[in-house]
């Protein structure tokens, strides 16, 4: 079943994943008294890639809920089906990309210091010049200016901003993609209902490349962001993204014509929906 992820603009569409109840309990217990099992943080085991044919199967040293759309924790509310950001970040990525509108790096690095372990990190933002300068000073004070770069994409129009909310974590053994809905500021992650799409992709095992609509689209989008994302585009070609299970709809500022008119404007989503409906009808009648 195809699903649409529009969170690269501002929202995410996906099915909610239920977390299995505690195993070994009396089946006669009511749902109201049966406790829920909260998944363990994912930093303590290898990157897990779950495909459509092995959902719920045990991989590596732990079994996970299916990757897909998940809600984020909110302070003071139950957490049985929601997650914290640090449960999705494995240590020491070879390369990482954080795309968002607003960044508070003092809060982000203080709350998630695991990000500082990235060998190289590109922060793509839409902040004002003054806020960007403040964030840059935080990077300089940490002595990480050679490993962490900030980039504000060029805006061809006198209005609008960069608003994509996307994380890419490149590892030797896999790629983790997170499309989410929150700015990188404390209030968005602690007091507001937010969501994220999470998916892992394996390294291509064969010598021949595997092109998928997901990876091709993501590569085109990274190209639109500018040359600081060239390394991410190069690394993306190492991974098999053919089992993404979703279609991306990115927000790219500017005036679009030709094929780009159906890739980056409001016409992109209806085109994908029509494709899904046609494919579903074909499956039903075949």
Give descriptors for this structure.
disordered C terminus; 16% strand; 6 helices; globular; alpha/beta; 8-stranded mixed sheet; 10 strands; two-stranded parallel ribbon; 286 residues; 22% helix
Structural account:
With 286 residues, this protein is an alpha/beta fold. It is 22% helix and 16% strand. The protein has helices at residues 105-111, 129-141, 186-190, 213-225, 230-236, 268-285, and strands spanning 3-5, 69-72, 82-83, 95-99, 121-124, 148-151, 166-171, 174-180, 195-202, 246-248. Helix 1 (105-111) links the parallel strand 4 (95-99) and strand 5. It is globular and about 45 Å long.
Structural class label: alpha/beta
H/I helix tally: 6
Q: Spell out the helices and strands N to C.
A: EEEEHEHEEEHEHHEH
Kindly state the number of beta strands: 10
- Average pLDDT, rounded to a whole number, is 75
Helix content: 10-25%
Radius of gyration: 20 Å
The profile of the biggest β sheet is: 8 strands, mixed
Apparent shape: globular
**Which strand order does the major sheet show?**
3-2-9-8-7-4-5-6
State the end-to-end CA separation: 16 Å
Task: Tell me the strand percentage band.
Answer: 15-25%
Low-confidence stretches: 1-46, 48-66, 280-286
């Amino acid at each position: 079943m195809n699903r649409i992820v529009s969170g690269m603009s501002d929202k995410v569409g996906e099915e909610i994943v239920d977390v299995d109840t505690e195993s070994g309990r009396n089946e006669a217990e009511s749902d109201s008294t049966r406790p829920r099992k909260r998944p363990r943080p994912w930093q303590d085991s290898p990157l897990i890639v779950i495909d459509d044919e092995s959902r719920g199967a045990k991989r590596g040293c732990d079994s996970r809920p299916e990757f897909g759309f998940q809600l984020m924790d909110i302070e003071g509310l139950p957490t049985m089906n929601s997650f914290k950001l640090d449960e999705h970040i494995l240590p020491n990525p070879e390369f990482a990309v954080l795309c968002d509108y607003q960044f508070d790096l003092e809060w982000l690095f203080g709350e998630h210091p695991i990000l500082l372990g990235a060998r190289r990190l590109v922060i793509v933002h839409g902040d004002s010049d003054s806020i960007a300068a403040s964030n840059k000073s935080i990077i300089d004070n940490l002595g990480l200016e050679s490993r962490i770069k900030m980039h504000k994409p060029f805006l061809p129009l006198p209005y609008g901003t960069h608003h994509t909310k996307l994380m890419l974590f490149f590892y030797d053994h896999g790629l983790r993609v997170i499309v989410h809905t929150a700015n990188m500021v404390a209030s968005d992650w602690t007091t507001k209902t937010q969501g994220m799409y999470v998916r892992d992709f394996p390294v291509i095992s064969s010598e021949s490349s595997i092109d998928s609509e997901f990876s091709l689209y993501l590569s085109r989008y990274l190209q639109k962001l500018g040359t600081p994302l060239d390394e991410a585009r190069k690394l993306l070609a190492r991974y098999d993204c053919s089992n993404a299970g979703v279609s991306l709809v990115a927000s790219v500022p500017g005036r679009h014509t030709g094929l780009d008119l159906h890739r980056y404007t409001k016409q992109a989503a209806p085109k994908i929906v029509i494709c899904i409906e046609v494919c579903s009808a074909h499956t039903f009648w075949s």
